[in-house]
Design brief:
CATH topology of the largest domain: ATP Synthase, domain 1
Structural class: alpha+beta
Radius of gyration: 32 Å
Shape: flat
Largest sheet: 8 strands, mixed
Number of helices: 2
CATH class of the largest domain: Mainly Beta
Number of strands: 8
Oligomer: single chain
Order of helices and strands: EEEEEEEEHH
CATH architecture of the largest domain: Sandwich
Strand content: 35-45%
Helix content: 25-40%
Length: about 160
């Protein structure tokens, strides 16, 4: 008798702190590091890394979501185990706290960009002031970048025909 494929699988999502869900599921979509992975019952065994993103799963005809960040997923024909660094259910999200974190992250990001831009500008300003004080450097710099002067062609008079 041939083996039949399962019609559902056990889905477990855990973090270091807690077990987020442990349900019977019909389908799951995972944010894998190489792209989204869709898993149905009977899937080929697979171990994959996960990135930050939304994990979607269907259980009892209803779709559910969990935001996860970094981790691993073990996929087997009859179960899927997700080990995530962090996982948050939609009911656990505090909109005010999320907005405050977003603003803080944008400030940190703009500070990094500002510091990088400042170091680049000061470096190019130093080069310009150096060229103003030492004009001979600009002439030599042009030659180093591939500018070549044509050399006069000299031929041996004994090689001339005629």
């Amino acid at each position: 008798m041939a083996d039949t494929l399962p019609t559902s699988f056990q889905l477990t999502v855990v973090t270091r702190e807690r077990r987020i869900i442990d349900v019977e599921s019909d389908e799951v979509e995972l944010p894998a590091s190489d792209g989204e992975i869709g898993v149905l019952p009977g899937h080929t065994p697979l171990l994959t890394t996960l990135r930050v993103g939304t994990m979607r799963y269907r259980s009892g005809g209803e779709f559910h979501r969990i935001v996860i960040s970094w981790g691993f997923a073990e996929i087997l024909p009859d179960r899927v185990i997700v080990l995530a660094e962090r996982g948050v259910l939609p009911s656990e999200v505090d909109p005010a706290a999320a907005e405050a974190e977003r603003i803080e992250a944008e400030k940190a990001r703009s500070g990094i960009r500002h510091r990088r831009g400042a170091s680049r500008r000061s470096s190019s300003d130093d080069q310009r002031s150096s060229l103003m004080c030492h004009p001979e450097r600009s002439e030599g710099a042009g030659r180093r970048r591939g500018a070549m002067r044509a050399a006069p062609i000299r031929t041996d008079p004994s090689l001339r025909s005629g």
